[in-house]
UniProtKB/TrEMBL annotation:
InterPro entries: UDG_Type-4/5, UdgB-like, Uracil-DNA_glycosylase-like, Uracil-DNA_glycosylase-like_sf. It holds the Pfam family UDG. Belongs to the uracil-DNA glycosylase (UDG) superfamily. Type 5 (UDGb) family. CDD domains: UDG-F5_TTUDGB_like. It comes from the Bacteria. Residues 1-20 are annotated as: Disordered. This is Type-5 uracil-DNA glycosylase. Residues 71-249 form the Uracil-DNA glycosylase-like domain. Keywords: 4Fe-4S, DNA damage, DNA repair, Hydrolase, Iron, Iron-sulfur, Metal-binding. The keyword Hydrolase applies. Signal peptide: none annotated.
Length: 261
């Protein structure tokens, strides 16, 4: 990457510098999504997402997998951003839409629908008519990782996409909800680099955590909320219940000035 920069060349999709070079230059979310979906900067993730698409799960043998980075989903004027972990191998990696086609997505969309922020409680496929109101879903890592565990290096390489997305949302963004500790930890440096002052020591993740980031010269006031991730492990064991997630999302909607159910 250093040699490419020294030569004045623009990093290509297979280069580790591709996100950092291109993401900040995107003027709209549409442009960002177009750039992001062509990214191949993390060889391990590229190999895994494409292997999964080739082998496929038995239930989806007749379906063509998306098998590319999954962009954020939701309106460009969203005042709430919900940040997860990464697309699921047979969920977003299959459907091409964030949090769509798996149990975690169904749980999340049921909660969003209960609060009045999603048009329906399910998330079957990208053409199912689901729409969001006032909320956008995204993640720190946009490719499905093996065992749902991105490496720190993959997280850092992908960080530029999240930073650019939050920057494009920032004129109207009022609340960010981090789903799980990974999303929380990935968000903190992004928010700091974007111009928000983080408290010291850095705020600790927890379900129901609520951190006020005061307005700065560059940014308006922002609220950071924490919620357990709606993974099968959390929902099946009862660590996260639907009323618990609904409670956090309803708080987020209220703080953002969105009418909630």
């Amino acid at each position: 990457m250093d040699a490419i920069r020294a030569a004045g060349q623009v990093p290509g999709p297979d280069d580790a510098g591709f996100p950092a070079h291109h993401a900040p230059r995107c003027a709209t979310l549409g442009e960002l999504e177009a750039r992001l979906t062509g990214c191949r900067a993390c060889p391990r993730l590229v190999a895994w997402r494409e292997e999964v698409a080739e082998v496929r799960r038995a239930a989806f043998q007749d379906q063509e997998y998306w098998a590319r980075p999954v962009p954020g989903f939701g309106p460009a004027d969203a005042s709430v951003a919900v940040v997860g972990l990464a697309p699921a191998a047979h969920g977003g990696n299959r459907t091409g839409r964030m949090f769509t086609g798996d149990d975690a997505g169904d749980f999340l969309f049921t909660a969003l629908h209960t609060v009045g922020l999603a048009s329906r409680p399910g998330s079957g496929h990208a053409g199912d008519g689901l729409s969001l109101r006032g909320v956008r879903l995204t993640s720190p890592v946009h490719c499905a990782p093996p065992a749902n565990k991105p490496t720190p290096g993959e997280r850092d390489t992908c960080r530029a996409w999240l930073a650019a997305e939050l920057d494009l949302l920032s004129p109207g963004l009022r609340v960010v909800v981090a789903l799980g500790g990974f999303g929380w930890q990935a968000l903190l440096p992004v928010l700091a680099d974007a111009g928000w002052d983080l408290p010291r020591p850095r705020p600790v993740f927890g379900h129901g955590a609520h951190v006020l980031l005061p307005a700065t010269v560059r940014r308006q006031e922002l609220r950071l909320l924490g919620a357990y991730h709606p993974s099968r492990r959390n929902t099946f064991t009862g660590r996260l219940t639907l009323p618990m997630l609904v409670g956090v999302l309803r708080e987020a909607a209220a703080l953002a000035g969105l009418p909630a159910g």
